[in-house]
Amino acid sequence: MKSLAKERKDWKCMLKKKYYNPKHTYEEKLAVAVDARVLPHQWHVLVQFWNSAKGKSRSFRNRENRSKQTTTHTVGTKSFARFHKEEHPEAELNNTIRDEIYTKIVGEDRRGWIRTYGLGPSLSYVRETIFDHVETEVIRKNNEELRGIKNRCK
Question: For the whole prediction, is pTM greater than 0.85?
């Protein structure tokens, strides 16, 4: 839902930037030939809002707030998490240290509970899942070894 709202906001921003001229009269603004995807009554509503006191005050406030921003997104198409991981590979070690510190402060998991999982799985479920995966991997490797031995015996 958030992405849809952002798309709508960006769409209105593009329309205003491309077709709306605050120096024109109200009638001239309504008469502008806008994008074919915009219905005439929708364009009238947008122009009416942008001309209203509420629309002008919001535009002024947003313009001021935008001018106060000192940092911008400068990592291109990468997410901040990916950028940080590539720039600071030693951070993985720091996560292990953080986990140890967290365990020292909060304490070990209590019997039958796992911290930070909320009402999710129990300790036995997580251990079974981990051990099932490990057992499956061991069984797979053993089967491959047996096949190799059988093939050599033939």
Answer: no
| Sequence-ordered strand ranges (E) for the chain | none
Spell out the residues 6+ positions from residue 75 whose beta carbon is closer than 8 angstroms to its own: 83
Identify the CA nearest to 52 among candidates 79, 75, 29: 29
Q: How many residues comprise the chain?
A: 154
- pLDDT score recorded for residue 17: 92
Give the integer Cα–Cα distance in Å for 2 and 6. Answer: 6
Token pair recorded at residue 147: 């096949």
The mean pLDDT of 15-44, rounded to a whole number, is: 90
Q: Which residue has the tokens 């019997």?
A: 111
Taking each helix axis as running N to C, give the angle between helix 53-68 and helix 40-51, from 0 to 180 degrees, rounded to the nearest 10: 70
Using CA atoms, how far residue 67 sits from 17, 57, 60, 125, in Å, is 18, 15, 11, 52
